[in-house]
Specification:
Blueprint: H1 3-21, H2 26-47, H3 56-72, H4 78-100, H5 105-125, H6 127-130, E1 136-137, H7 150-177, H8 179-189, H9 191-196, H10 201-227, E2 229-230, H11 237-250, H12 256-275, H13 280-294, H14 298-312
Antiparallel strand pairs: 1-2
Length: about 325
Amino acid sequence: MSKIRIAGVVLVLLALLAPVMWPWLKTPIVIATSFGIAALGVSILIRAGQLSFGHAMFACAAGYAVAFVARAWPQLDSALLILLGTVFGAVMGMIIGLFVVRYRAIFFGMLNLALSMVLFSILGKFYSLTGGTDGIRLARSTFFGMQLERDGFETALLIVAVVLAVALAWAVQRYLNSIAGQALAAVKTNETRLEYVGLSANRALWIGYVISAGLCGLSGAMFALMQGLVTPEMGYWVRSGEIVFISILGGIGHPVGAFLGAVVFEFVKLYSAALFTGAWQMVLGFVLIGLVFFVPTGLSGLLFKQGGRREEKP
């Protein structure tokens, strides 16, 4: 078994067993997993050489969609709400992607950023509908037909989050190895040659964009259910920057990297905020600087490199 797979197995075991010993870890693990899913979506676009500075808008929009539907139909199950958030993110990505995928490089990134800030402003201004900066609270609904207390609900959400993380990592890896995934990578390396062989670069990028938006929508739905609250801050540019940070930290060499980066990010943020109140951003900045200098391919790239060296030995 390669080191990257071992790392994935270790992450799954830690996510499931650590909360048994330390119940307070449920919340940060679920949040880290939701960030990892969003980072997995962003890493798909990075494979195409495109960096989005506004993908948190899909998580935010999905979170609000879940909140509106849950408020209108309180009897809906949480599993259906998660599915709804995912579909809403993907559909939103389909529409926005038709316009955004025509652009590349900094224009692609800044257009996503601009759209996310438009959404952030709308959510903050329409107080009567969105609750403004106070957001909307979600009542705890059933989960797979079971009415659970807070602890049981968090446990169920943790298990669902871990199962989804494993399934999505496998599915994204299959997608990246498929013809569609290889075409997406070709958008970065040689877009002209891709067009010569009869494949549309814009279509390949659009498919990747929709998948990434759906993953961010799933992330936002899970985050909303865990927090029991949605606010415009979910779509602020800082949140998009955090998702990009996680993608770079974990590396795009393997889908497991997104979750490695998310775990490291969440716990570095958690402990640095406790030890260096008001200066945790500086700690994260030093982590990113160190990563760029010493591990430019991210944590997953480091594992690949070490695994490759070991296999070369006679």
